[in-house]
User: Fold this.
Amino acid sequence: MPESHGSVAALLRAAAPDELVEVADGFVRTRLGGSRTDVLVADYRIAGLWPVLGERHPAGGPLAGTTAAVRCFSSQRSVVEPAAAGGVRLYLPVTAWGERIGVLVTDFAAAPDGQLLDEVGQVADELAVALRAADRDTDRYRRARRRERLTMAAEMQWDLLPGRGQAHPAYQLAGQLEPAYTVGGDHFDWALTDDRLTVTVLNGDGAGLAASLLTAVTVNAMRNARRSGGSLVEQAELASDTVFAEHRGTRHVATLLLEVDLRTGRVRLVDAGSPRALLMRGQQVELLQLDQQLPLGMFADTRYEAQEIQLEPDDRLVVVSDGVYTATPDGRPAYGESALARGIRRTRLQPATEAVGTVMRELHAYHEHADLEDDAVIVCLDWQGMKVDTAGTGVGGIEPDRTG
Assistant:
C-alpha cells in the first residue's frame, strides 16, 4: 500500500534531522492520544540511558538495576507501568537492524490495547531508522549520548564504526569499544552483502591520534578492496600494502579478518596479528588455534592465507583485541584465556548485545574499575543458521584454505 502523507514515516522524512524526537512527540500526542513523549538514548559505553528532551522531561540514568527503561532496553520488549501523574507509562525499544539506539517513553491516560501498542511500536521503529539516517547530519543525538568529552582519536574511531549491533535471521552481532572516550587504535568493522558477513577486529600500532589515523587508513583500505569485490585475502593484502607504502614498515596493524557464508555457516579467517577468537559451543569455550601471520604493513608485498572453521547453530564466536586478552593491571597476571572463557560462559543466556557489555564489565572489574591501560574491543557473533555437516572439523577444527 502507498504510504499516507500523514504517516509517522512520512512526517519523519519531511522533518529537519535535529527535530525527529519533536515530530514523534507531536504524532503521539495528536494522533495517538498520548500526553508525554521522550527518547532515552544509550551512551557510548552503553552504561546509561539519557533523554534527548532532557530540558523538558528530566529522566534517564545508569543502565543498572531493574527500572522499566532498563528492562525495556535489555529485553528489547515493551514495558508498561503506572505513571507518576496517573495513567500509564509505556516504554518501547528504539532499534534499527539490531542496533539498539534507546527507548521511546510515552504516557497515556489508560493502558493501551493491542492496536495502540502496535501503533506506538511503529513510531519507535520508524524513529529508530530516522535517527540512524540523521546521525550524519546533526550532532544533537551524539551530544545526548556522550557523558564527557571525547578525545580527537576517540571521535575519529566512533565516526569510523559501522554501528554497535546488527541483526539477521542467521545471526546476531554486537561490538563494544573501550575506553569509550579516549580510545585510540583499536577498532572493529563489519559489512553484510548478499550471503556474506565480513567482520574485522584491529589493534592499531601506537596510541592517540597517530594510532587512530593508522587505523582509519587500514579500515578504509579493507573497505575499498571489499567494495571492489576483493576476497578476504585481497582485503588483507591491499591494506597491508597501503600501510607499508605509507610507513615503510615502521607502523603496522594487527588484524583478524573473518567472513561468514550465511548459507552454510562456513567461516574463512585471516589471522594477521594479535586479536584472538574464542568459540563457545554448549558449555565449552575454546581459543581457536589459528596460524598467526604477519601484522598488516610490516613488510612489502606480504601475502596471506585464509583458514576455515565450521559454525553450528547456537555457536557463539567472540573476538577480542589484545587490550582484553593481555591486560595486566598493576602487574597482575594477564587477563588471558581462562578469565575470558569464564566471562564468556557467564553470557550463555544473554543475547550478543548484552554479552559484550558483560565481558567488558568483567574486564573493568579485573582492573578494579580503574581506567583500562590499553584499548579494548569485543565483538560477539551468535550463529543461528542451518545445521551443516561438520564431519572432520570438530569444535574449533581448522582447515587450510589457499583459494584466496
User: Anything to note?
Assistant: The first strand starts at residue 36 and ends at 42.
